[in-house]
Specification:
Layout lengths: L4 H7 L5 H8 L5 E5 L5 E5 L5 H14 L5 H7 L5 E4 L2 H9 L2 E5 L7 E5 L28 H9 L7 E8 L5 E8 L5 H12 L9 H7 L12 E3 L2 H10 L2 E5 L5 E4 L17 H30 L7 H11 L6 H21 L2 H21 L5 H14 L5 H21 L1 H17 L1 E2 L2 E2 L41 H5 L7
Antiparallel strand pairs: 1-2, 2-4, 3-5, 4-5, 6-7, 7-9, 8-10, 9-10, 11-12
Helix pairs in contact: 10-14, 10-15, 12-13, 12-14, 12-15, 15-16
Length: about 500
């Protein structure tokens, strides 16, 4: 019979202190230190901050004489101190960076002092969701620092943080963040319940949580909004969303979300609403072009060439003259070449990757046309489609767009334009059925909600955003009084 880690661990639960210490001493980074006064310290030196150990703990112990375990707590100027005889608690705390102090070898009770060492990078600019206008801070891998970035922006007591621990081996700390009295209680409880129900041995990044919490794990569409920007998270919290953050991950997951949100850059809110709306429409058109351009070309050239105007048909025939491959193989060759260049550029160091992407694209494109393997018209379409997929602000949705082109390409080759229409119907049915934390994914298109269109395909002025989105079912729907927001009086009035 197969055993998983948690079962095996339960069988080897350390019942006594001597069993725990014996097991700890098998690791070379475990230290047993006896002070001149006879106090015994146990700790893992790879987890402990040496400054805290020597200046706050040992220095104060050497300068004082204590006779009871309670006096140790008064001598050492550290807040996170526990006194216990629970072996299970001792094991948990020492593995999370605590120093265990006994007054003598016969003592059963000890003092647990938190002295964990945290290695973390500095807060830097966003790399995935970079914007020209707006704040230049992004989350890092330290959960406490990330929450600090939010606390410094939201100075309210209603900002609530619920911690959960997930992972039989890693014991990863997860924070569920929301604003009480605004976030829908059902959304919060659903998120907490799904996290508590997770059965897995390790959690490395918030993307694990995104996959484990998805309503439909078989869907290629992401069902939570992944972001590295504190300003985007703040806006989502104020609207009533629930945010999930993971220790060791520089990204936050926002739930519930909708399809439209993946095509809106947060920089849209820092620009004039007319300009932002124009950019958003260009972005949506680019995504549709990226998915449909090559499949439509293959379908028209293969089955529906009579629909092409004569002047354009002459150009297409001239460009394909001497090309030995049928349109589908020609298109697949170029699409796969683009994907190879993308992957090569992403996996190589930054400077080399940029060079490979530019030089490789020019060399392969020029060589394939001159060799007669592809037509220059299709090369232009594939290049524009690749550029269109890069306009997606959220990286996960960009990957989905890249994947969707291939089913459409095959459908266009097999059945022509009706095949592409059929493929669109399948995608539409799937999106209509999809949910995010139990909320409709295609909102406000379906179910149709007129109020939420103010920030969907276009972004209306802020004075129109007086109510929170219906999708989130927030406890407090009003954000501000629209009449007062539109009132503009002269200073002398």
């Amino acid at each position: 019979m197969l055993k998983h880690f948690s079962k095996k661990k339960q069988e080897k639960e350390y019942a006594t202190l001597s069993d725990l210490l014996t097991k700890c001493k098998t690791s070379k980074d475990f230290v047993e230190y006896v002070t001149p006064q006879g106090y015994i310290l146990y700790y893992f030196n790879t987890l402990i901050d040496s400054t805290v150990l020597h200046h706050d703990i040992l220095e104060n112990l050497n300068l004082s004489t204590v006779s009871t375990i309670e006096e140790v707590e008064q001598v050492i100027p550290i807040e996170d101190i526990k006194i216990t005889n629970d072996v299970k608690l001792m094991k948990q705390e020492i593995l999370f960076g605590s120093v265990m102090i006994f007054l003598s070898k016969t003592d059963e009770r000890c003092v647990l002092i938190k002295a964990v060492k945290k290695e973390k990078r500095q807060v830097s600019i966003p790399e995935v969701e970079f914007s020209v206008i707006g704040p230049k801070e992004s989350f890092i891998e330290d959960l406490d620092t990330n929450i600090n970035l939010l606390r410094n922006r939201l100075h309210i007591l209603e900002l609530k943080i619920e911690y959960r621990t997930v992972g039989e081996i890693t014991k990863t700390r997860i924070a569920v963040i929301y604003i009480e009295e605004i976030a829908n209680a059902e959304n919060v409880n659903t998120a907490l319940q799904r996290i508590e129900d997770i059965q897995i041995d390790h959690i490395v990044d918030s993307s694990y949580i995104e996959q484990l919490l998805s309503d439909n794990s078989k869907s290629p569409f992401p069902q939570s909004l992944d972001t590295e920007r504190p300003d985007r998270v703040l806006s989502a919290l104020v609207e009533g969303s629930v945010v999930i953050m993971v220790e060791g991950s520089p990204h936050a997951q926002i739930v519930p979300t909708t399809l439209i949100e993946f095509f809106s850059s947060f920089e849209d809110y820092y620009l004039n609403w007319l300009i932002a709306s124009g950019f958003r429409l260009i972005r949506l058109f680019s995504v549709l072009f990226s998915i449909l351009a090559t499949p439509i070309y293959v379908a028209v050239i293969t089955y529906h060439y009579m629909l092409i105007p004569k002047e354009l048909l002459t150009t297409l025939v001239a460009s394909r003259q001497g090309v030995p491959l049928p349109p589908i193989l020609e298109a697949l060759f170029l699409e796969l070449a683009i994907e190879l260049l993308r992957e090569a550029g992403a996996r190589l160091p930054m400077k080399i990757g940029q060079t490979i992407g530019i030089v490789g694209g020019i060399v392969i494109g020029t060589a394939s046309v001159e060799a007669g393997l592809t037509s220059n018209v299709l090369l232009i379409l594939v290049a524009l489609a690749a550029l269109g997929s890069f306009t997606t602000p959220i990286y996960r949705m960009g990957n989905t767009i890249r994947l969707l082109r291939f089913p459409f390409l095959i459908a266009g080759f097999l059945y022509g334009l009706p095949g592409i229409a059929l493929c669109l119907c399948f995608i539409a049915i799937h999106l209509l059925d999809l949910t995010s934390l139990g909320r409709p994914y295609l909102e406000p298109i379906f179910p149709p909600r007129t109020r939420d269109f103010k920030d969907a395909f276009i972004r209306l002025p802020f004075s129109f955003h007086s109510k929170r989105p219906i999708q989130l079912q927030s406890e407090i729907t009003m954000r501000f009084n629209r009449k007062h927001a539109k009132r503009k009086k002269d200073i002398d009035d």
